[in-house]
Amino acid sequence: MVKQLTFNQLRRIKDYLPDGSMKVIAEELGIAPDTVRNYFGGQNFDEGKSCGFHIEQGPDGGIVTLDDTRILDLALEILYFDGTLKF
Question: Rounded to two decimals, what is the model's pTM?
Answer without folding.
Answer: 0.79
